Structures are given as structure tokens and as C-alpha cells.
Here is the input.
Amino acid sequence: MLSFELTEDGWFDGLPPGQAPVLRTMLESGKTEEQVAEFWLSATGPDTTAGFGATGRIQKFFSNVKQEFNAFVCDDDRYEEERQQAARIWNEQGKVALVSMVAAVVASNIGLAVAAVVPVVALLFSLSAKVGINAYCESCLEDNDEKETN
Here is the structure.
């Protein structure tokens, strides 16, 4: 598990100017961090631009991002070195650098662009800071147990 205490505010501070207000507006409208993250990865954006959006089977992007994020913060052995690095980054550089670092690790393991993953990682850190990292990880374990029994 992460060896430092997460604080609630400021997780969107390092996002590009157009992203943070969109995420905040969606959260203020009553959507959960997970709903906003799923929307973010599935949104195609304007017709004239290429978005991060995914359709069909590829909509598992959020599930894959969340699974890797959970493995990172909830004590998967393969991320031990990265968690130690994350603690140093947290202490020396703060949230913006931590979000960027974790997004890079997650994105590289699932084959997505880091730019697409950064807002999702910020949302997941925001959620885990709200409920506490221990409760967040416990919830993830319960979710995995339910999936295995179904």
C-alpha cells in the first residue's frame, strides 16, 4: 500500500486548463469519480478531432486503467519499486508529479497514451483520498471477490 497519507484537494491542479473544469462540472452534477473516468475514456469529442474515445470491446479501457491503478496503490508486488519512487515524488514534488508518474506507469502497462490516462488517475486518486486508501483498497478486493464468484 502507499506509504503516505493522501489529502483530498488539488488532484486536478496539474491537468490542462480545459480538462479540470469539465471533470469538476461532471462531479458537481452528481456523477461519481468512476462514472466521470469511464466517460472520459469513452468520449469521442468533436467530429473534427480525434479523441481518446473507444467503442465496442475497447470500452474496457477504464476497467484496465482501474485494475492497474489498484495494483499500484493496493500493494501488488510488481509495483514495489514504483511505490517507493512514488513516496519520494509525493514528498518532494506533490500531487501533480505523483499523478503524472502513476499515469505513466499505468499507461505503459496497458498500452494507452499517458495523456488519456492522467485525468483518470487524478479522479481515482481523488476518490481514494476521499474514502481513505485502506478503505479504497478493501473495496477493490471486495469487487474482485464478487467478480470471481459470479
